């Protein structure tokens, strides 16, 4: 998976920036939700789209946090083009 895929999964999780999750907590949450999405990143992408529609005012900030947090938890990953 790319950093974008992982960030979408993290975005869809219950973790919040205010939780200051550790890299291990991030990986655990992403792994658990990834199984919930049946390993299909598009299922989590649909959740992201729903959240974007429901909360457009906070979408960009949360997605930036998810991308940055994934980079911290997983290292240098390439985002999808």
Distance between the termini: 13 Å
Mean pLDDT: 86
Radius of gyration: 11 Å
Which spans have pLDDT < 50 for at least 5 consecutive residues?
none
> How much helix, percentage-wise, in residues?
over 70%
Structural description of this entry:
It is built from four helices and no strands. The chain has 81 residues and is mainly α. It has one domain (3-11, 22-76). Helix 1 crosses helix 3 and helix 1 (3-12) packs across helix 4 (56-74). The radius of gyration is 11 Å and the shape is globular. 23% of the residues are buried.
Name some characteristics of this structure.
81 residues, mainly alpha, 70% helix
Write the layout of secondary structure elements.
Layout: H1 3-12, H2 23-36, H3 41-54, H4 56-74
């Amino acid at each position: 998976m790319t950093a974008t895929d992982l960030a979408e999964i993290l975005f869809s999780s219950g973790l919040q920036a205010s939780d200051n999750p550790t890299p291990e907590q991030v990986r655990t949450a992403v792994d658990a939700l990834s199984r919930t999405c049946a390993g299909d990143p598009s299922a989590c992408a649909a959740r992201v789209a729903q959240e974007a529609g429901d909360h457009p005012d906070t979408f960009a900030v949360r997605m930036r946090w998810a991308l940055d947090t994934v980079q911290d938890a997983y290292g240098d990953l390439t985002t999808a083009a």
